[in-house]
Write a structure and sequence with these properties.
The complex is a heterodimer of chains A (about 500) and B (about 240). Helices cover about 70% and strands about 0% of the residues of chain A. By secondary structure, chain A is mainly α. Classes of the chains: A mainly alpha (about 500), B mainly alpha (about 240).
Chain lengths: ~500, ~240
C-alpha cells in the first residue's frame, strides 16, 4: 500500500497478485502436459503415419503458431473473453460465426478430454499390476480417473494449479533425462539429424504429422486471460506466449528427435509400431533401470491426470462463458463462491465423459487406438479449424481497425492466417493417414461432417437468438460482461462493423 | 457473554458486504480474491454513494463534494482512507476503474474489518495453539445474526419488490457478481432475474442528482463482474 497522503497512481494489473512471465508460462505448459505428448502422441504418431518427420513438424508448426500468436495477443485486449477462440471469431467474423465456433470448440476440447480416458488405463495398468497385483480392465482405471477429475473440477482451481506446476517440473526433468539417455546411446552408434531435416518432413502425407504437432501447442491460447492480472500486459502477455511456444517447440522437437536417434531413423517407425506408448520406456529401461521406469510410469499417470484436469477445466470454462453470455442455459454460468470453480459446467463435462467411457467399455473397442489416438487426431483437427477461423478473424479485425493498426501487423496476421490454413488443408487431406487408416477421402468427409454439423447447430442457434432474444444475441463474445458493451457502451475502443459483437452499440 | 450482545445493523456498504461474506467464525464464504475484489468495489461504491465520486467513461472523477473534502484541513495525524483515496484519484484522472479496484482490493477487507472492530461489530479470534499455518487473527461477528442481516433484508425486499435503496441494489449486484447471492439470499425463485431487473433500474433514473450516483454504481458493478470473470478464467480467483 502506498503511503497515506501521497497521490501515488495505482499499480496496474492485480495489485499484490501480479503474475509474471514465469507464472503464465508454467500455467500454460502445465496444461500441455509434455510427458503425455512424449510417451503417447509422438510414438503413436510415428507408428500410425509411418513418417519420420515429426521432430521437423514441431519446428514448422512452432513457427506458424508464433506468427498466429503475434496477432492473437495484439487483439486480446479488445476481447471481452480473451481466453478462448470464440471471442475472436465473434469479433472478427461476427456473432453467428462465434456461436458456431463455440460449438466446434466445445466438441473439440471434449473429444480431446475423452481421448485421454482411453490412455489412462495404459498409463496406470503397469503400476497397478506391479505394485498391487491388479489385473483390471482399462475402463476401471478410466472410471477412477473420471471420479478424481470430476472432484478436482469442483475444487479451487488455484490449488490444483500448484500441484500441476510441481508435476510439470518433474515431467520436464524426466523428458530431459530420457532424451539425454537416448542421445548418449544412439542406434548404430551415430547421432543423426535426419528426422529434423525438412526433406524428411515434406514427404507425401506430411499434413498428418503437422496436425499431430499442433496437439503439442493446444492450450497456449489461455495465456491471454492474464491480460488483466499482470503488469504491462501489452509486453508481458506476448512475451509469455513466445516463451511458452519456444519451450514447447524445443522440448517436443528435441525429445522426438532424441527418440528417433535412439531407435534410428530407419527403425523408429517399426519400433513405435512394435511397442506403441511403451516405446519410451523400452528404450530407456536398459540404461535407467526398472526403478526409474516405475517413476516414469508414475509421472506419466500424473501427467495424463493433469491433462484431463486441464481439458476438463477448459471445457467447463467454455460452458461457463456461454452460460454467462446466456447463449446456453444460465445455470452453466454459475461458479462456486467458495472455490470459484464452474460447477455446473463441470457436472456437464463429467456426465458426457462418463457416457463415452460406458459406450467404449460396452462395445469393447481398443481404447488406445480408437479412443486416445482417434480422439487426439480429431480434436487436433477441431482445434485447427478454430485456429484458422480465429486467424482470419484477426485479419478482418485489423482491417476494420486499419487506422490504428501498423502495416506490419497486417502482414503478420495474413501470413499467420495463410500458414494455419495451409496446415489445416494438409491435415484434412491426409486425415486417413493421421488415423492410421487406408488412404481415402472417407475419414476426411466424416470429420468435416461432424464438425460442420456441430457448427451448423451453433449457427442455427445464434440465428434463433438474433430473432428472439436480441439482447442476449448482442452479448455474444463478451464473456459475460454484457453491460459494458450492450447497455452502456462506454469503452470506445471497439469500433467495428455491423457483424462484430460491439458494433450495434453505436459506440 | 459478549458474543450475544446485539449491535445495530451496519449502514456502510462495505460493512454489510464483509459481514455477509464471512460466517460466524469469521471464515470467508468466498475465495480470498473474490472477497478482496468485492470489498474493493464496495469501498469505491461508498465514495460514489457519499457523493465524492462519479464514474464516467470507465474512469473515476471527483465531484464537488470530493474536492471540498480534500480542501478541508486534515485534523488527524494520519489521513483517513477516504481522504487518501480521493487524493490519489484526483492525482491520476486517466486511470481506469479496473486499475483502481484491483489496486485497493488487497487492502480493502482490512480497512473494512478495522472499521467494524471500532464499531464493536466484530472481534478478533486468535488462531489456536496448534493452528501453526495461520498467524493472523480472524474477525468474527459479535452479533450472531450479522452474517444473515443483508441476505434476509434483500430477500424480503426483493420478494416485496419494494423498499430497495440504492445501497441495497448495489450490494445485491455485488453478491451476484461474486455468486454468493444463491447462498445469501435463500428461497427466492428466479433470483438472478430479480436482481438483474433491480440493477437495470440503476440506469433508468431520470433525477439528475441520483442518476449520476446510480449510473456510476452500475458501471462499478459491471467492471467488478468483469474482473471476477477474468479471474475465474485465469484461475486466479
Amino acid at each position: 500500500m502506498s503511503s497515506p497522503g501521497s497521490t501515488t497512481p495505482p499499480r496496474t494489473g492485480a495489485a499484490g497478485r501480479t503474475v509474471g512471465v514465469p507464472y503464465m508460462a508454467l500455467f500454460v505448459l502445465s496444461a500441455a502436459t509434455p510427458l503425455t505428448v512424449f510417451t503417447g502422441i509422438i510414438p503413436t504418431g510415428f507408428a500410425q503415419t509411418g513418417l519420420i518427420g515429426i521432430p521437423a513438424a514441431f519446428v514448422v508448426v512452432g513457427v506458424v503458431v508464433s506468427l498466429f500468436f503475434a496477432g492473437f495477443t495484439r487483439m486480446a485486449p479488445q476481447i471481452g473473453n480473451p481466453g478462448s477462440f470464440v471471442g475472436y471469431i465473434a469479433h472478427g467474423l461476427g456473432r453467428i460465426a462465434g456461436v458456431g465456433g463455440a460449438a466446434v470448440a466445445l466438441t473439440a476440447y471434449s473429444i480431446l478430454l475423452w481421448g485421454l480416458f482411453g490412455f489412462v488405463g495404459t498409463a496406470a495398468a503397469p503400476l497397478g499390476q506391479k505394485w498391487f497385483g491388479w489385473d483390471l480392465p482399462w475402463w476401471a482405471y478410466a472410471l477412477g480417473a473420471w471420479a478424481l477429475v470430476g472432484w478436482l473440477g469442483h475444487r479451487r482451481v488455484r490449488d490444483a494449479g500448484r500441484v500441476v506446476g510441481v508435476l510439470l517440473g518433474l515431467e520436464v526433468a524426466a523428458i530431459a533425462v530420457c532424451s539425454v539417455t537416448n542421445l548418449l546411446n544412439p542406434a548404430g552408434g551415430t547421432v543423426t539429424t535426419a528426422t529434423l531435416s525438412p526433406t524428411n518432413l515434406f514427404t507425401p502425407g506430411y499434413g498428418a504429422v503437422l496436425a499431430l504437432a499442433v496437439i503439442g501447442f493446444i492450450g497456449i491460447e489461455s495465456v491471454v486471460v492474464f491480460a488483466k492480472e499482470c503488469d504491462r500486459p501489452q509486453r508481458t502477455v506476448p512475451l509469455a506466449a513466445y516463451v511458452t511456444i519456444g519451450i514447447t517447440t524445443v522440448l517436443y522437437a528435441g525429445c522426438s528427435w532424441a527418440l528417433s536417434v535412439a531407435a534410428g531413423p530407419d527403425g523408429i517407425v517399426g519400433a513405435a509400431q512394435a511397442h506403441g506408448p511403451e516405446l519410451v520406456f523400452h528404450l530407456a529401461r536398459p540404461y535407467l533401470g526398472d526403478a526409474a521406469i516405475d517413476v516414469l510410469h508414475l509421472l506419466l499417470l500424473t501427467s495424463v491426470l493433469a491433462a484431463m484436469v486441464s481439458f476438463h477445466n477448459c471445457g467447463a470454462r467454455y460452458l461457463l462463458s456461454l452460460g454467462k453470455e446466456h447463449v446456453l442455459p444460465r445455470v452453466l454460468g454459475r461458479t462456486s463462491p467458495k472455490t470459484g470453480a464452474p460447477v455446473a459446467g463441470s457436472w456437464v463435462q463429467s456426465a458426457a465423459t462418463l457416457l463415452v467411457i460406458a459406450v467404449y467399455a460396452v462395445l469393447g473397442l481398443d481404447p488406445v487406438r480408437f479412443l486416445f489416438y482417434w480422439a487426439g487426431a480429431s480434436g487436433a483437427v477441431g482445434v485447427l479449424l478454430l485456429m484458422t477461423a480465429t486467424a482470419w478473424s484477426i485479419v478482418l479485425y485489423f482491417v476494420r481497425a486499419a487506422d490504428r493498426t501498423a502495416i506490419r501487423w497486417w502482414a503478420i496476421a495474413i501470413l499467420a492466417a495463410i500458414g494455419v490454413s495451409w496446415v489445416l488443408v494438409e491435415a484434412l487431406t491426409h486425415f486417413a493417414l493421421l488415423l492410421g487408416e487406408a488412404p481415402g477421402p472417407q475419414p476426411t468427409r466424416i470429420i468435416l461432417a461432424v464438425f460442420g454439423g456441430v457448427a451448423a447447430i451453433g449457427v442455427t442457434w445464434a440465428v434463433w437468438l438474433r430473432l428472439t432474444r436480441h439482447q442476449d444475441y448482442l452479448a455474444i463474445g463478451l464473456g459475460g460482461t454484457r453491460e459494458i458493451d450492450v447497455d452502456q457502451g462506454e469503452d470506445g475502443d471497439h469500433q467495428q462493423g455491423e457483424a462484430a459483437p460491439t458494433s450495434s452499440t453505436g459506440r | 457473554m459478549g458474543n450475544w450482545i446485539s449491535a445495530p445493523p451496519p449502514q456502510k456498504a462495505g460493512d454489510q458486504l464483509w459481514l455477509c461474506a464471512h460466517d460466524l467464525k469469521g471464515r470467508a464464504r468466498l475465495t480470498p480474491r473474490a472477497v478482496e475484489l468485492a470489498c474493493g468495489s464496495a469501498v469505491f461504491g461508498e465514495l460514489v454513494i457519499d457523493g465524492y465520486l462519479e464514474v464516467v467513461d470507465g474512469r473515476a472523477r471527483l465531484l464537488e463534494q470530493g474536492w471540498e473534502h480534500l480542501k478541508a484541513p486534515c485534523v488527524f495525524r494520519r489521513p483517513a482512507v477516504v481522504r487518501w483515496l480521493l487524493e490519489r484519484i484526483s492525482g491520476s484522472p486517466r486511470t481506469v476503474l479496473d486499475d483502481w479496484i484491483t489496486d485497493i482490493a488487497p487492502d480493502a477487507p482490512l480497512w473494512i474489518v478495522r472499521r467494524l472492530e471500532k464499531q464493536g461489530m466484530v472481534r478478533p479470534v486468535q488462531p489456536g495453539r496448534f493452528v501453526f499455518w495461520r498467524t493472523t487473527p480472524r474477525y468474527a461477528p459479535v452479533d450472531l445474526n450479522a452474517p444473515h442481516h443483508l441476505g434476509d433484508h434483500l430477500a424480503m425486499a426483493l420478494q416485496r419488490r419494494s423498499s430497495l435503496t440504492v445501497v441495497d441494489v448495489f450490494l445485491a449486484g455485488l453478491l451476484q457478481a461474486t455468486q454468493l447471492h444463491h447462498k445469501a439470499i435463500a428461497g427466492l425463485p428466479h433470483l438472478d432475474d430479480l436482481i438483474t431487473a433491480e440493477l437495470h433500474t440503476l440506469t433508468q433514473s431520470t433525477d439528475t442528482e441520483s442518476a449520476v450516483c446510480e449510473r456510476s454504481l452500475s458501471t462499478l458493478l459491471t467492471h467488478t463482474r468483469q474482473l471476477i470473470n477474468t479471474a475465474v478464467l485465469a484461475h486466479t480467483l
